[in-house]
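Sample entry as discussed:
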Amino acid sequence: MESMVVSVGDTDVLVLLLSHYDKMGCSKLLMKAGTSKHPKYIPVHDIRRQLPDEQVSSILTYHAITGCDTVSQFSGHSKKTAWRVFQEHHENLCQLGRGQLTDDISKSAEKFGCQIYRVPKAETCDEARMKLFCMG
């Protein structure tokens, strides 16, 4: 299959397309967004090529814990802020959702949350809460 157009206007779908693009067997994939009068075509294939494989393998986990249709975003922090943290610290999410949840995987995901709240030296959410409380 050479190219494909998917017509949607949802970030959840874009993340799914990015996550599964390599398995789809097409060289170009466009996501139609915008309105019927002003359509936009998002080149999923170009976005995918810009993302390292390690980020793509964790992008569904990132999207699920930073806010999607069924989960709220981190309070006071946008998806854009979470994306910047993900770009630097995606390794903290690489094992989450891939089998049994161990203490190490849980701690690694907690570190990601601490980094979103800019408490990088905190190892747990409780530590981050305490540090943020003492600062305020």
